[in-house]
Amino acid sequence: xxxxxxxxxxxxxxxxxxxxxxxxxxxxxxxxxxxxxxxxxxxxxxxxxxxxxxxxxxxxxxxxxxxxxxxxxxxxxxxxxxxxxxxxxxxxxxxxxxxxxxxxxxxxxxxx
Length: 112
What we know:
Layout: E1 3-7, E2 10-12, E3 18-25, E4 34-39, E5 46-51, E6 58-60, E7 68-73, E8 78-83, E9 92-98, E10 101-102, E11 106-110
Parallel strand pairs: 2-11
Antiparallel strand pairs: 1-3, 3-8, 4-5, 4-9, 5-6, 7-8, 9-10, 9-11
């Protein structure tokens, strides 16, 4: 059964950067589009970005476009999210997703 483990979250000041990782086990990701979502306290889960199976197609939420970059390494069964120019409104739990499968999430807090 597919399981995701996210890592790389933390506390960062506005304008800072973080790189999130999402590694899958029990399943090979290389034929699938996968994505990142986030959920802030008291808010609904929202789409952040997705990447196609070979990495050739990516899509971003307008709120992160130009600041975040999604990538993947199929040899490592891992997806990444490079987050630059972070803002307080980026504070959320970030989760990776494939179809019905979700990771447990990693907390990102942007605060001065």
